[in-house]
Amino acid sequence: xxxxxKRETFSSGLTVFFATLGSAVGLxxxxxxxxxxxQNGGGAFLLVYFFCILFVGLPVMLSEFYxxxxxxxxxxxxxxxxxxxxxxxxxxxMGVGASCLIMFFYSSVAGxxxxxxxxxxxxxxxxxxxxxxxxxxxxxxxxPLSPILWQFIVLAVVTAILAMGVKxxxxxxxxxxxxxxxxxxxICDIRALTLPGAGEGIKFLFQVDFGKLSAAAILAALGLxxxxxxxxxxxxxxxxxYFTEDNNMIKTAVKVAFSDTLISMLAGLAIFPTVFSFGMxxxxxxGLLFMTIPLVFSQMPFGTILLAAFFFLTAIxxxxxxxxxxxxxxxxxxxxxxxxxxxxxxxxxxxxxAVGILATLSVDKASVLGNITFFGLGFFDxxxxxxxxxxxxxxxxxxxxxxxxxxxxxxxxxxxSNHGQLKIAGLVKGYFFLIRYVTPILLVIVxxxxxxIIKF
Length: 456
Ligand code: PHE
Fold this sequence. Notes:
single chain; 456 residues; mainly alpha; 18 helices; globular; binds phenylalanine
């Protein structure tokens, strides 16, 4: 379509890295990673997660990079160009759906983060104790009107940035603030690790007890790996369609996966020592971050300012991740359906807000819609489960099969080596081995075991 001819690209290798990292790093690291690790028993879950990043996440990421940069299109258009007239483009359509499902609950949690920032600025967390931290979180999510209002604000911010365009919107923010977030989490770590009883938290995180590992936990670790690295749904395809021609994509993939995992670990090292030091439950679920972080800072000099800074930077990380999520439908609607970027962004956000309210009103059993469940899950958990644990790994499996068995290997070698400029023959061999044999087989095993067909 004509829209393709004046497509923008990121301006340099460094921007490619930060924009991609900006998509990967978000609530996944700071909110979801710690609470899932807590719910699934700690060390053993972590080990499975690392395994998934290495043998599933990295190869799928590289595959998406190939598809995106080679075709320079949105997820649906890219697959259609790669395999014209075949059903492969449905991976892209699934991705547009997954992006919406994720945004329904992600915008809700981002709304809590914005709200916490606001409250921190008002000094609401001075002299916080474990009880008041729990009560504050309860009142934030119960609303019912205020969390909806904050969700609306989140979506309005995201829409405004997207409507301004890829370069201006995404580049500037990620490059400057990502390193700051990193520094602030390290400050949290230092404080948390020096709390009395911090050792228990470290033990929880690093002691591997396979007895605690269920098939459901393994699926959760796999789903988290996809969610974390923004894979299986077209985000990385769409972003890589804006990559520069000379970018070393293998290096970018490894750097992004490594930095992202490091940030998750640092977040875990701030949260679990605090949980154990204050005698809280690691299994607290989605509220874990919100109940512990105010406690970490309450014991620190300049705590109030640092707490506000923490939620500010988390809000930024969540926002840059959302930009990449919403970019999937926006690029699709504007390139394939002839909509302007502005109207695509507005239309998408309206849908996300309308359905997202269901997530916001069903976070807790006591929420307004908390008693409506499907297979035992309320809207909030259902949107999360279907996207992270089903659609993203399924998208990943299809992408692995496409790259492993259906595209010409020499095309892939050509693109990954920047037309022969990079000497990466050995790495590419390793990649093909993984994407053909290891990644798809692991994905199938995890799927089958999670529905009970294979038992360990
Ligand atoms: N990776 C983001 C995070 O961890 C979430 C995300 C998922 C973004 C899928 C884009 C696509 O917060």
